[in-house]
Write a structure and sequence with these properties.
- The complex is a heterodimer.
- Chain A is mainly beta.
- A 13-stranded parallel β-sheet of chain A has the order 1-2-5-8-11-14-17-20-23-26-29-32-35. In chain A, strands 3-6-9-12-15-18-21-24-27-30-33 form an eleven-stranded parallel β-sheet, with no helix packed on it. An eleven-stranded parallel β-sheet of chain A has the order 4-7-10-13-16-19-22-25-28-31-34.
- In chain A, strand 1, helix 2 and strand 2 form a beta-alpha-beta unit.
- The N and C termini of chain A lie far apart (about 75 Å).
- The N terminus of chain A is likely disordered.
- The N terminus of chain B is likely disordered.
- In chain B, the strands form three sheets. Chain B has a 13-stranded parallel β-sheet with strand order 1-2-5-8-11-14-17-20-23-26-29-32-35. In chain B, strands 3-6-9-12-15-18-21-24-27-30-33 form an eleven-stranded parallel β-sheet, with no helix packed on it.
- In chain B, strand 1, helix 2 and strand 2 form a beta-alpha-beta unit.
- Chain B is mainly beta.
- Classes of the chains: A mainly beta, B mainly beta.
- At the A-B interface, strand 3 and strand 33 of A face strand 1, strand 2, strand 11, strand 14 and strand 17 of B.
């Protein structure tokens, strides 16, 4: 019995040793943290793991050499190329370094289409091409301290049940939406500057049956877009919820803030403590199925109307400052009792 | 015939070749460096490894819509921008532009272009205007994270363009900190405008022009004459719309001033000013209206001024009834109508 035991233990030991060795071999050139450099980087350094002393040149090569949930660090300012992200990773340019991703054709700057991944993008400057950041599968997307501009499509476009955080980021002059959240995407947008986009600055869109899509926007600026922030849904069982607080929706050529629903869908928009000025229409409930709640906003200098209820439900907390609009309030607005 | 065609072909080939040569080294992103930059590197395109020295050289080598990136801290040159471009100093890099007498720091006078300035420090050393956009037509100007100070005239001057100013300091300029004129539509956010003679002036004096400014989360401090002025002047049908929210307007001659001085040409323009959730303290006058200006004040704290709210005859000065106006030498002067909130 003892011999059998010993043999079993020996075999177990060998198996364990073989396993450890196998893992070590697999990870020989993958690392928790890899590096890229425009000044001295070379993608042939991927063979040695894109180290800080022998960095790679482009994001794509470094990502492949990085562990799941590891980080790619940018060492110096330059161009780092578009990237398709296929595992959980963070691409990080520290303050003082500009990491450009310039796309000359219609491709996306950063494309994520792998289920289950968590992606962090920090300090990137993305311009030209299709969408700046496009995510169609995965768990989480965090965008911090980035600038996304002059894209042929949207700045950030996310479709599906993905948790999205956009913080301290500038999204300007893109030729579609600033940020598009669609069919189950749940977005938190904080301290973002969203300017001059050809379509809405932020749109939450529900087209998929049973989906709930949301955008919670705080401390942000939405100016000079087609509209500032819009919730829109078109499927009977789709829900869209948008909240905007302590933000500016100004100088947008259509709506500052608007909710729009069709096909029996439901869209709720809650706006509190915002400045909504110099838009065509300030805050609007455009259609049946929309519910707008407005509290503590300043709404002024709208070319058509400050508050507008076309066919939805529009409730006010009764503490909005509403003046100097062509029409201050249009359609039925119900004043709620504060509580 | 054949010869003509041959010549034409050769000419075409030469033109194509010339174009190819010209564009060979223009790129979406170029680089400038005070430490290792040389304008001789323009021939190979002001790259990250072989950067140029001056903005003006790198700009020529940059595609329309492209970016000039500052690689390291140092002194860079005043520049006249002639195409859509971004000049960018990343955080942690100091890009200083000293402006000598009779010059402007950044000058833009080409119609239809979009310019982004990020992270620049522009200092007048006898120079006139820090950032000057003259009479624009479909121009856009974005100023992010810049500091503009000590100009002999004005910090930022914009005539008739979409303008975004954010996270910027405009300080100690002899005349205006920011002057927005005749069709300019501006958003000013998280910006400090301090120690200028005039803080932010929003003015229309050309018939049919609408000038707007939305100022949020900003500090307007120690501007001798006034911190913000909305003014329609001289001609018919000029419109000025200004909103100020969540800002501190302190230690100035007048905090917020709306004045409609139109009429010399025969008719009056319109001036409206919305002020909400601001702190107005230690000014000569907190909020002041002249002639036929329209003012709405909501949720402001107005304290420790010589006069809190001042309305001259003809002004429509309305309060949402939720302002705290106290501890001024004179809290209220002139007719102010409480309209409530809704």
């Amino acid at each position: 019995l003892e011999i059998t035991m010993l043999r079993t233990r020996t075999i177990a030991f060998f198996l364990a040793a073989a396993l450890v060795s196998a893992i070590t071999t697999t990870q020989a050139h993958a690392a928790q943290r890899t590096f890229v450099s425009a000044a001295i980087g070379n993608d042939t350094n991927a063979a040695t793991g894109c180290t800080v002393t022998a960095p790679c040149r482009l994001f794509q090569a470094a990502m492949a050499a990085t562990d799941v949930s590891g980080e790619v660090i940018v060492l110096d300012s330059g161009e780092y190329g578009g990237v398709v992200i296929t595992h959980s990773v963070a691409l990080i340019a520290p303050a003082g370094v500009l990491a450009g991703i310039s796309i000359l054709d219609g491709a996306n700057g950063v494309l994520i289409a792998t289920p289950g991944v968590n992606v962090v993008l920090r300090g990137l400057s993305i311009n030209g091409g299709g969408n700046g950041i496009r995510m169609v599968a995965g768990n989480k997307l965090t965008v911090k301290n980035c600038v996304i501009s002059n894209m042929g499509a949207s700045g950030i476009s996310v479709t599906g049940p993905i948790i999205v955080s956009v913080i301290d980021t500038i999204i300007r002059d893109n030729r579609s939406f600033g940020i598009s959240l669609q069919d189950g995407a749940l977005g938190t947008i904080t301290r973002a500057i969203i300017s001059g986009n050809t379509s809405a600055g932020v749109v939450a869109q529900g087209q998929l049956a049973g989906s709930t899509t949301s955008a919670d926007i705080a401390d942000s600026i939405m100016d000079g877009n087609l509209s500032g922030a819009v919730g829109t849904a078109s499927n009977a069982t789709a829900k869209v919820n948008v909240t905007i607080r302590n933000s500016s929706a100004v100088r947008n050529s259509n709506f500052g803030l608007a909710a729009e629903a069709s096909g029996g869908s439901s869209v709720r928009l809650t706006a509190s403590n915002n400045i909504v000025s110099n838009n065509q229409v300030g805050i609007s409930a455009l259609s049946v199925g929309t519910t707008v709640v407005a509290a503590g906003n300043t709404v002024s200098d709208s070319l058509v109307a400050g508050f507008q209820n076309v066919a939805g439900v529009f409730r006010s907390a009764g503490d909005n400052a509403l003046r100097n609009n062509a029409t201050d309030s249009s359609g039925k607005v119900t004043v709620l009792t504060s509580r | 015939m054949l010869r003509t065609q041959t010549i034409a072909f050769f000419l075409a080939a030469v033109v194509v070749s010339a174009l190819a040569t010209t564009q060979a080294h223009a790129s979406q992103r170029t680089f400038v460096s005070a430490a290792i930059g040389s304008d001789a590197n323009a021939t190979i395109g002001c790259t990250a490894v072989a950067p140029c020295r001056l903005f003006s050289t790198a700009m020529v080598k940059t595609d329309v819509g492209g970016e000039v990136i500052v690689v390291d801290s140092g002194s860079y040159d005043p520049v006249t921008i002639t195409k859509s471009i971004s000049l960018i100093a990343p955080k942690g890099v100091y890009a200083g532009i000293s402006v000598p007498p009779n010059k402007d720091g950044i000058k833009i006078a080409t119609p239809g272009i979009a310019v982004v300035l990020r992270g620049l420090t522009i200092i007048g050393q006898g120079g006139n205007v820090g950032i000057a956009l003259e009479e624009g037509l479909n121009n856009r100007l974005t100023i992010e994270g810049c500091a503009i100070s000590n100009m002999k005239a004005t910090g930022i001057f914009v005539n008739n363009a979409e303008t975004i100013i954010i996270d910027t300091v405009v300080r100690n300029n002899t005349s205006d900190g920011v002057r927005l004129e005749n069709g300019t539509r501006a958003t000013i956010t998280r910006t400090i405008v301090s120690q200028n003679f005039f803080g932010v002036d929003v003015v229309s004096n050309i018939s049919g022009r609408t000038t707007t400014a939305d100022i949020v989360d900003s500090v307007l401090d120690r501007n001798s004459d006034r911190s913000v002025m909305a003014q329609s002047s001289t001609f018919n049908n000029t419109i000025v719309k200004v909103s100020v929210r969540d800002s501190r307007i302190v230690n100035s001659g007048k905090g917020l001033l709306a004045v409609n001085s139109g009429g010399i040409g025969g008719g009056l323009g319109t001036v409206s000013l919305s002020a909400s959730n601001n702190l107005l303290s230690n000014n000569g006058v907190g909020i002041m209206g002249l002639n036929t200006a329209k003012i709405l004040a909501s949720g402001n704290t107005v304290s420790n001024n010589n006069i809190g709210l001042l309305s001259f005859p003809g002004v429509i000065f309305e309060s949402a009834g939720n302002n705290t106006v106290r501890n001024n030498d004179t809290d209220l002067s002139g007719p102010i109508t409480v309209i409530g909130t809704r």
